[in-house]
Design a protein that fits this description.
Length: 610
C-alpha cells in the first residue's frame, strides 16, 4: 500500500504539476522519494522550445526537469536542483600564478637550449625571454580555449567557473586548464556548442602563434646539435608540416620556443577533440550520435591503448584516466531533440582538425648512442719477426648520435708478451693523420676513420709461434664507460730467426773537410743457420769510404762477411770528406744484403761538413 504524501509534499507536487502542464499535456503522474515524473503528450515541433521554457521556470524554484522517450512514451522527471558551493576566484588566481611560474621555468629550459646557453642560465633577460617567447603564448592559447567554453556556457544561461590552470613540470610546464559547469546541460544543441567552442577558439588562437614561431625559427636559423643523445624531441602534426612549407629551411634547426608553444596548442586541441568520455570530443560525439556515442568512446580509448603500446606509454595513462572518469557521457536534460545538419558538418570539420593536429608520439627521448662499425681490410693474417712488421687496416664508421672516444687493444693479454703494437689513425675524408692521445682517439658523429695497427716482435722465439688474437676497438661514454666493443679476430705468426742492426754512436756526424768520421755497425743474428752479408757503401762524388771487420787490411767500400748462427758481428765504417767538400750536409748509404733471406736493408748516414 503506497503511503500518502505529507501536505507540504503534496502541495509541492501540485506546484510542479501545474508548471509542467503549462507546456505539456499530462496524462499520468508518478512519485518517488526524491522526484516526480509525468507521462506527457508531446508536440515534436514545439518540444525543444517548450522544454527550454519549462527548464527556465522550474529553475527559478530550484527544480530541474529531464525528458526521456521510452516505450513510445515521453516522460518528464522533475527533481531538486543540486546545491553547489562555488569557490571564490582566489583559487583560480593561485593556480594561475603557479602555472605562470612553471611555464616560465619550462620556457627557461627551452630558451637556454635554443639560444645555446650552457646549463640553466637564470637572469632577468632569460626569464623575460622565457615568459615572452613561451609562457605567455602558451597560456594565451589555453586561456582562449577555456574562455570559449566559459562564454558559451554563459550564453546558454549556465553557471560556469573561471578557468583553472594546472601547473606541471617541464618540458611543457602545464597540464592544461579547465572550467567547471555547475549545472546539467539542457539539450544536445547546448552540449554541441559547449564541445566545439573551446577547440575552435584554441585552434584559431594557435594558428598565428605557430606561424610566428615558425617565422622566428627560420629567421634565427640555429642549427641543431650534432649530438642528439639524451635529448627530448617533438613530433610535428600534419598541420605543422603544412605551415612549415611557408618557411623552408635546409637542414635540421632548433625550434623556437614560440613554435613550441604553438605545437602544444595543436596537441591540446587534438587531445580535447578525442571523442571519448567527457572530453570536448566526447561532448560533440554525444550530441551527434546520442547513446550510440558510447561505441565511439570505447573505440577511441582502444585506439589510445594501441598507440600507447606502440609509441608512447603516456597514451596508456591518458586512456586509463578517461576510463576512470567515465566512458559513457551523461545525457543532457533533453536528449530527444537532435541537432541540425549544419552542426553535424561542423563536427565533421573538427574531426579533420583532430586528424591534422594529432601525433601518436608527441614527445620522445633519444637515448645516448655510442655505436660504430668497424671492419678489417686486406686480410687478418700477419707474419712478423724482428725485421718484419705488419699493418692491419681497419675502417671505422660512426653510427652514433654522440661524439665518443675510441680505444684500441690487442687481446688476449698473453699475446702481448711477444707482440707489440702501435696504432695510427687517418681521417678518411682528408687523409690527414689524427693524433691519438692516451685517453683515446676522438670519433665524432658521422665521422669515418682509418686505423692502422702495426704489430711487431718484441721477444726472441726459438720456433715459429702462432697466436689467435683479436683487435679490440671500443667506444667510451662521457663517463669513460665502455659503450660499444668490436672484437675483430686476427692471426699472428712470429717467425723464428731474425737479425737486428745498430749503429754507434748514431747515424749522424759532423766533420771538417779533409777529415774522417767513424761509425760502428753491429749485426746480431737470431737465425738458426749462418747468413752471408754484403755491406756496400754508396758515397757522393769525391768522397771515400771503407768498411772492415777487425783491421783495416784491404779495406774497401764493400765487405762480404759470413755470420754464424746466433752470433754477433761488429764492423767499422770510415768516411773521408775531401778538402773540396763544401759546407753542408751530405748523405752516405750503407746497403746490407743477405743471400739466404730477402731482407735487404739500408742505413743512411748524415755527414755535416763544418
Amino acid at each position: 500500500m503506497q503511503s500518502k504524501p505529507v501536505p507540504d509534499a503534496a502541495a509541492e507536487v501540485e506546484l510542479i504539476k501545474s508548471i509542467v502542464s503549462r507546456y505539456f499535456t499530462i496524462y499520468e503522474t508518478n512519485l518517488t522519494y526524491d522526484s516526480v515524473s509525468f507521462k506527457c503528450q508531446v508536440n515534436a515541433q514545439s518540444l525543444e522550445d517548450n522544454f527550454k521554457r519549462l527548464r527556465e521556470e522550474l529553475g527559478r524554484s530550484n527544480y530541474i526537469p529531464v525528458i526521456t522517450y521510452k516505450g513510445g512514451e515521453h516522460t518528464i522527471t522533475v527533481g531538486k536542483l543540486p546545491k553547489t558551493n562555488p569557490k571564490g576566484p582566489w583559487i583560480n588566481a593561485v593556480m594561475l600564478a603557479f602555472t605562470v611560474g612553471t611555464t616560465i621555468f619550462a620556457g627557461l629550459i627551452l630558451w637556454n637550449g635554443y639560444s645555446g646557453n650552457e646549463g640553466l642560465l637564470i637572469t632577468p633577460e632569460t626569464i623575460a625571454m622565457a615568459a615572452l617567447t613561451f609562457a605567455v603564448p602558451l597560456l594565451a592559447i589555453l586561456g582562449i580555449h577555456e574562455m570559449g567554453h566559459y562564454y558559451t556556457a554563459k550564453k546558454h544561461g549556465l553557471s560556469a567557473s573561471l578557468p583553472f590552470f594546472i601547473p606541471a613540470p617541464p618540458p611543457i610546464g602545464t597540464f592544461g586548464a579547465f572550467i567547471s559547469i555547475r549545472e546539467p546541460i539542457p539539450d544536445r544543441r547546448t552540449l554541441f556548442n559547449l564541445g566545439i567552442s573551446g577547440p575552435i577558439a584554441g585552434f584559431i588562437a594557435t594558428i598565428p602563434i605557430a606561424l610566428l614561431g615558425l617565422f622566428l625559427t627560420a629567421e634565427g636559423a640555429r642549427l641543431a646539435p650534432v649530438e642528439t643523445g639524451d635529448m627530448t624531441f617533438v613530433s610535428f602534426p600534419l598541420i605543422y608540416e603544412f605551415f612549415s612549407m611557408f618557411f623552408p629551411m635546409a637542414g635540421d634547426y632548433l625550434i623556437h620556443p614560440t613554435a613550441m608553444a604553438g605545437w602544444v596548442g595543436f596537441l591540446v586541441t587534438a587531445i580535447n577533440l578525442i571523442p571519448a568520455g567527457s572530453l570536448d570530443g566526447g561532448h560533440i560525439a554525444r550530441s551527434i550520435f546520442g547513446t550510440n556515442s558510447k561505441y565511439i568512446s570505447w573505440t577511441a580509448v582502444g585506439f589510445l591503448f594501441v598507440i600507447g603500446s606502440l609509441f608512447n606509454l603516456a597514451w596508456l595513462l591518458f586512456a586509463l584516466l578517461v576510463m576512470l572518469l567515465g566512458l559513457e557521457h551523461a545525457p543532457p536534460l533533453n536528449d530527444i531533440t537532435k541537432i541540425d545538419v549544419r552542426k553535424k558538418f561542423i563536427g565533421a570539420l573538427l574531426a579533420v582538425v583532430l586528424v591534422v593536429s594529432f601525433v601518436p608520439n608527441p614527445l620522445y627521448a633519444v637515448p645516448a648512442d655510442y655505436s660504430f662499425e668497424a671492419d678489417i681490410e686486406g686480410g687478418n693474417e700477419a707474419n712478423i719477426s724482428f725485421a718484419l712488421s705488419h699493418d692491419f687496416k681497419f675502417n671505422i664508421i660512426s653510427t652514433a648520435n654522440m661524439n665518443t672516444r675510441l680505444m684500441v687493444d690487442l687481446q688476449p693479454s698473453n699475446v702481448k708478451a711477444d707482440v707489440g703494437f702501435s696504432v695510427q689513425f687517418y681521417d678518411n675524408a682528408s687523409g690527414e693523420i689524427i693524433p691519438a692521445p692516451s685517453e683515446g682517439i676522438p670519433l665524432n658523429v658521422s665521422a669515418n676513420l682509418i686505423a692502422y695497427m702495426t704489430v711487431y716482435q718484441t721477444n726472441q722465439v726459438s720456433e715459429d709461434t702462432e697466436y689467435s688474437a683479436a683487435v679490440l676497438i671500443k667506444s667510451l661514454t662521457r663517463d669513460n664507460e665502455e659503450a660499444d666493443i668490436h672484437a675483430i679476430p686476427v692471426n699472428i705468426t712470429i717467425l723464428a730467426g731474425n737479425y737486428t742492426l745498430s749503429v754507434e754512436p748514431d747515424t749522424s756526424s759532423s766533420i771538417n773537410p779533409g777529415s774522417t768520421a767513424l761509425f760502428y755497425l753491429n749485426i746480431s743474428s737470431a737465425y738458426s743457420s749462418g747468413l752471408n752479408f754484403t755491406i756496400t757503401l754508396i758515397l757522393p762524388s769525391g768522397w771515400s769510404g771503407w768498411v772492415f771487420e777487425e783491421t783495416p787490411t784491404n779495406a774497401t767500400n764493400r765487405l762480404d762477411v759470413f755470420l754464424e748462427k746466433y752470433s754477433n758481428l761488429s764492423c767499422t765504417i770510415v768516411i773521408f770528406a775531401p778538402l773540396s767538400a763544401p759546407t753542408g750536409t751530405v748523405f752516405v748509404t750503407a746497403d746490407i744484403e743477405t743471400k739466404e733471406i730477402p731482407e735487404d736493408r739500408t742505413i743512411l748516414f748524415a755527414i755535416h761538413v763544418v
